[in-house]
Predict the structure of Nucleotidase.
Amino acid sequence: MKPERTLTIGIDIDGTVTEPSSIVPMMNESFGKHLRYEDCFVYNLAEVYGISDEAFVDWLDKHGERLYDEAPVHGTADLILRSWFNRHRLIYISAREARHREVTLNWFSRYRIPFHELDLIGSHDKLAAAQRWHVDLFLEDRLENALQLSEALEIPILLFDTPYNQGTLPELVHRVHSWEQVDALVESLPIKRLLGSQS
């Protein structure tokens, strides 16, 4: 029998625990477009929708609460996160703003998604938070975050495959297509801390 692993897992929320395509219908509704999730070829949706960055920030400011409340769970994320809860430390590090903590907690409660810490940092730069929580690996959908975290922390990153994060990946970044694949990788990846070195 394999020994129980106790990992500190950093987990992004939007596009990782939530279904990555869930923002597209709301954006279409607001901007009169008929784009598909597959058309979102870059992470910056302002570029995809042909609007200014300021217009997108304003849209998210007005519609973020609804977006975070209505987003469906990504695949079997809820089931797998529940199965991890008693064996691993689950630290959610999200670019959501602190003012969205209540809607986030309500969503987690509705879908029975467990957590040990919920860190809403209001920024896409998650490096300082990942360092503060001493994460052993990170689950993410944004390519730039995956590259930064893997290089700076020298830890495995599991990057959920999306139209907007295509490209060549370094050795520590593993492209994944389902939460089932993530679950299997978490059990098999070599984690530095568990091998006796400092992560």
Remarks:
- Confidence is low (pLDDT under 50) at residues 195-199.
